[in-house]
Amino acid sequence: MPIPSRRAPRAPRPCVAVLAALSLSATAFAGAAPGHRPPPDARTLDAVEVQGHRSPIDAERALTPGGVSIVDGDSFHQRPVTNLADALRYVPGVWVESSTGGDAVFLSSRGSNLDATGYDGNGVKLFQDGLPVSTADGNNHNRFLDPVAARHVVVARGANALTYGASNLGGAIDFITPTARNSPPAQAAFAAGSHGLWSGRLTAGGVSGDLDGMLTLEALGRDGHREHSRQDRAGLYANAGWRATPALELRLFASYIDSEEELAGGLSRAQFDADPYQANPSAVSGNFQLDVRTTRLAGKAQWDPGDGRRLETGLSWEEQHLYHPIVDKVMVDFDGPGPMPPVEVFSLLKMTDQRTAGGMLRYGVRLGDHDLLAGIDLADTRETGGNHRNDGGRRNGLTGTIDNRSDSVELFLVDRWRFAPDWTLVYGAQGVLTGRDVRSTDIASGASRQLRADYASFNPRLGVIRRLAPGSEAFASLGRLYEAPTVFELEDDARGDGSTLDAMHGTVVEAGLRGASAPDGAAAAWHWDVSLYCARIRDAILSVEDPSAPGTSLSTNIARTVHAGLEAAVGASFRPGGGAYRIEPLVSATVNAFSFDDDPVYGDNDLPAAPAYAVRGEVMYRHASGFFAGPTFDLVGARHADFANRYRVGGYSLLGLRLGIERERWQLFAEARNLADRDHVGTFSVRDRAAPGDAILQAGLPRTLHAGLRVRF
């Protein structure tokens, strides 16, 4: 669908809109009639996946004055979910796309990672059961988690990730592992679809008195919707628990994942128009791949004596081996048509080993009207290995070694004070101390380079939650954001003079409404979650044109940028005439206003990569027999592919169809995506100044059919 071009608003305007909304919210708070104080466990249901019971996850969300979404892992068995983009489809404020349908995805939350060197995938901290998966410097390059292995996925956007110890722009995502105590004792799931997709998952577990255990074996394969985009993945996930006392539970986790994924590379405009599903020829000849083997061990202890106190602590260890051919031979014929053959001047195959040790501690206590939570996160990462010349996906000589280290300590303290009936004041702060040590050696010259830097910050937060009615509340907050550069960004500094980049920092203001109405016979039941936010950022780490190598980009600090937006997830359940069926619409909408702020080079240009808007939804017919069916839709606005705003990628609209049936022991689903088979750009690489001949475009899914079955024993 063609989208008309738009002129970027001046940066302060989105913030003015948010401040106006805050003022209106404050007026609404003041004018609302007082009511009785609700019990702590009676606030709101989740606006993305409606929960049937109050859990600690829901209770924590209800005490957060900002956008937090909880996705129920059971919903992943009612539709095709094979990567993070599928799992977070209906989470507003988060833009996730896979270039080939595999695990390698582009992830951005509230405008994070809108960079020309998006290698790191940073800006969002990933956790598994509250323990870090992102490296100590914030790097997410090597892997994203398998969402189908999660019982719940918690998405805390922006400063709302305070209780995870995070202060970065995009917030945090936590994947909660299922256990034998909250899952069927045995189940099997199978799926197949277009482009050679197949997957299988077998789970067995059980509970015996105070002991429980669960083991899952998983395998997945796909040819991919583009040439040279095959993936093969196998995984093992296990956990075991011991309830040492009624108040104390100990749990161990282990996982092993072996993923081999081909990368198709970007296309120029002409190549895309000729065949959007072809691979870049250099990706084939250079055999571009992202192959990662991951081993992870973790342990957690949870003490909950039931008197308003709760202690949770854990340790994790993760090792990753990366094999990553990513640049084909760059050949130069120095003497033109002369007798000397072309000479290889550059190619790249990256092979590294990465080890991350992590720890966390959370202590919560309820003291009268105060609900206090304190915590600490620890992480230490070391990456060793080197860069090699790439000969068709094979190593062809070591060109340089790397020995990168990073560490981080993040502490936080937050108090949720119910200072009046229906009012909760949320105030606290996060402190971060993190270090970087980057060491590299060029084999040809023997030259060594070392960059070291320490970063520290104190990041306060203040918010308020106002209960408006049973199951409905308004919130507003003000907080500080802070994110230090990754080791890759330090290595890629545009200055190259041994100095180090500054950390990104800024303030964010947010206001919103969330809640759910209780079902009432034939009346509609609604649930909603709406947030309006604006972040003013200083020293954002982006990329600029490398003057010595036009067409390439290097990292630098940008004085001022603005990240503002609207995030909304709204759903309903209608029972016409009180019959045996329901109509359930669900819409997730995001409006983005990300821009430079009076920059000397870029003015008030839009930041690239994020669409102007993204609306995704479905309208499901659900019968009491368990049958469901309905259309799905995607409406995505235009994006810029460069900081100069000279290269525009048009928006698109897609229509799909989903149906299935659910019984007590089994579920069956089928889904068709992009029924009209419209060619569209899914992801692309960002440039400082892009041109039509730049190979940056990657096609989204064509018409695709998936089907799956889950059986519970």
UniProtKB/TrEMBL annotation:
Which segments cross the bilayer? none
Q: Where in the cell is it found?
A: Cell outer membrane
Q: Taking every annotated instance into account, which residue ranges of this chain make up the domain TonB-dependent receptor-like beta-barrel? A: 289-675
- Pfam families attached to this UniProt entry: Plug, TonB_dep_Rec_b-barrel
InterPro entries referenced in this protein's UniProt entry, alphabetically: Beta-barrel_TonB (IPR000531), Beta-barrel_TonB_sf (IPR036942), Plug_dom (IPR012910), Plug_dom_sf (IPR037066), TonB-dep_rcpt-like (IPR039426)
> Which topology term describes how it sits in the membrane?
Multi-pass membrane protein
Region of interest: Disordered:
381-400
User: Mind naming one GO cellular-component term on file for this protein?
Assistant: cell outer membrane
| Sequence ranges of Basic and acidic residues compositional bias | 381-394
Gene3D superfamilies recorded for this chain? TonB-dependent receptor, beta-barrel domain (2.40.170.20), TonB-dependent receptor, plug domain (2.170.130.10)
Q: Which domain of life is it from?
A: Bacteria
The answer to whether the entry has keyword Membrane is: yes
Q: Name one GO biological process term.
A: iron ion transport
Instruction: Give the signal peptide, or none.
Output: 1-30
The protein's matches in PANTHER family, at most eight in alphabetical order, are given as: FERRICHROME IRON RECEPTOR-RELATED, TONB-DEPENDENT OUTER MEMBRANE RECEPTOR
Q: What's this protein's family per the entry?
A: Belongs to the TonB-dependent receptor family.
Q: What is this protein called?
A: TonB-dependent receptor
Question: Which organism does this sequence originate in?
Answer: Luteimonas wenzhouensis
Identify the taxonomic lineage of the organism of origin: Bacteria, Pseudomonadati, Pseudomonadota, Gammaproteobacteria, Lysobacterales
